Fold this sequence. Notes:
By secondary structure, this protein is of the alpha+beta class. It has a domain at 40-108. Helix content is 22%, strand content 32%. It contains two helices and seven strands. The chain has helices at residues 22-37, 98-106, and strands spanning 2-6, 15-19, 43-48, 53-58, 67-71, 82-86, 91-95. The chain is globular, with a radius of gyration of 16 Å.
Amino acid sequence: MTIQQLPPQNSAKPVELVHYHRKELGIILGVYGRMVAAGEWRDYGISSLREVAVFSIFRRTAEHPIYRIEKRPKLRNKQGMYAVIGMDGQILKRGGDLRTVLRVLEKKLIRAIK
């Protein structure tokens, strides 16, 4: 977990933000690149907040995200800190290993050939 210290705003304790590591981003962008090449996805956004880092995936630029990949370090010892969440807010997969969690997205690349 990477934590960035920001200057305090009316408090004595600095604000801690959750970020993705370079290795985690490499794994996510690998899946993202394959889906872009397949023509499924077109844009992404990254947010770093106090308790969660979010990688949002868009089909088109001016839409709501179709998937969100969230990292919540506080859930590391409970449900796993990574989750893939669909457009409707449903958790598609949760776990402690990022590659395993992202397999739910790679299944979208497998199509029946007629």
